[in-house]
Amino acid sequence: MGSMISNYIVIVSISGVLSALLALFAYYKKTDFAGTRAFILSSLTSAIYTFGFALELSGSTMPEISFWIKVEYLGMPFIAPSSLLMIMYFVGLERLIRKGLVTALYAIPFISVLLVWTNDHHHLFYQSMYFREGAPTPLIDVVMGPWYIVQGSLTFGCMLAGMCLILWQWNRMKRVYRRQLFTIFIGQFLPALGAFLYLMDATPYGMDPVPVIMSITSTLYIWAILSRGMLTAAPIARENLFESMRDGVLVTDLSDTLVDYNRAAADMLQDLDASAIGKPLAQLFLPAGQDAVDYVMNSDPLISEERELGWNMNGETRYYQVRSSPVQKYGGHQVGRMIMLIDVTERTLLQEKLLQLATVDSLTGIYNRMHFMELSRGLLNEAALSLEPVSIILLDIDFFKNINDRYGHHYGDMALQHIVTVCSSHLREGDIFGRYGGEEFVLCLPGTALKQAALLSESMRKDIERSSISAISRPIHVTASFGVVEARGKNLSLEDLLSEADHALYTSKRNGRNAVHVSSGSSITHFTPV
């Protein structure tokens, strides 16, 4: 029977060593888990408790055993409160951990330590202590005092609360995090079960099984830390933040295979569910359109970048700001990348609308005067360097005031839109078309000589003359007058060219309207196609 006690002492001592190693390992491990200190305190006090219990079993006299019981209580009362705080951090309830709560949890253990060490004077913790009859080795039985019940209630309350918090979070967690959660639950449940059996006097010779059980739980914790990254961060707190984000988040490995995502990402990507884990990112982005696929195929997972993509979502085009950043472990070892999808559709559409308001004439849909001038200056500067010709055309609707006065401003607006439709059908890519003011329009034609511009003006004039605007009473016919000038070989500003084209235009007006006149600088002539 003595060998059984000796084996029990060895196992308990091993448990103490494991708890001490666990505390040291957690202390030196780099981590962003805020509950690490509570975990270290729980492991350290477990080591004190188990070492004290091993020495208690090796004692042979009442004073000796009584002393080691006092040593046990330097650690045992603090284990359960520390474990509860660690679990609270783990499940994301750190906002509830305030100075008042910590004081309340640790006040009773400190009082318990004081009362145990001074028990001979008041017997508030133990009413009496005596040797158990029939035990194979000197073992102590106690008669509980009132404070023993207080301390026991706190211990079981903390352990029960910790297990309830874990069960509360169980269904909210992804499977990858449940292994850590299960390990912590076992670390609470087994000691609680052992303590309950001990109080019920259901253990062999009334010996406390908790120190032996702690060798099992410490081994589980070490395994979870090494293989599951249990102390790397607070997974549930991270998960709560991850899932509550309004922006979509995708996590991939180095081969751009999906390893995790949040709820917002599932709303942004078609068919993104648990079955998508392990699939290539390009395959998941395929329904979003060519922009999204090009991004995956051409982006570098090793580089942080940000860009905006057009995104097909159930037949509707949305706009996502995509931010990609490498995911690294401690030591700088890259393991994948995180892609954040931020829905900027409203902002992008607003920017486009503001840009349109700043650059486009709202009635006709062509450039306004300010933006036309800005673009045309750029073309003139490029033409000066390349020695390419550039022509300017000004045109004005004939008798426009009569249309407004006779038919109303609605038909006047229709006339403006009609002119734009007819002229636009003659333009090439790269030509700039703008509303110069009122019923006057202007074109800037890169790579176009004066004669070509005049021929184009004549074609537009004829099409305007032959077409009409539908009205209730009868069709409305309109005509337009044109003035054309070329910038090639002239050191003239855009304003000078427009002024010269304006003179040619008003020559058309003065000579009967519905005509094209060209300015060569020294003279203005009526253009008649040969």
Automatic annotation (TrEMBL):
UniProt keyword Zinc-finger present: no
Key words of the record: Membrane, Transmembrane, Transmembrane helix
A Gene Ontology biological process term: cell adhesion involved in single-species biofilm formation
Domain GGDEF residues, every copy: 388-521
InterPro entries xrefs: Diguanylate_Cyclase (IPR050469), GGDEF_dom (IPR000160), HisKA_7TM (IPR031621), Nucleotide_cyclase (IPR029787), PAS (IPR000014), PAS-assoc_C (IPR000700), PAS-like_dom_sf (IPR035965), PAS_4 (IPR013656)
GO cellular component terms, A-Z: plasma membrane
GO molecular function: diguanylate cyclase activity
Tree of life domain: Bacteria
Domain PAC: 303-356
TM regions (residue ranges): 6-26, 38-55, 75-93, 100-118, 147-168, 180-200, 220-237
Listed NCBIfam families: GGDEF, sensory_box
Listed name of the protein: PAS domain S-box-containing protein/diguanylate cyclase (GGDEF) domain-containing protein
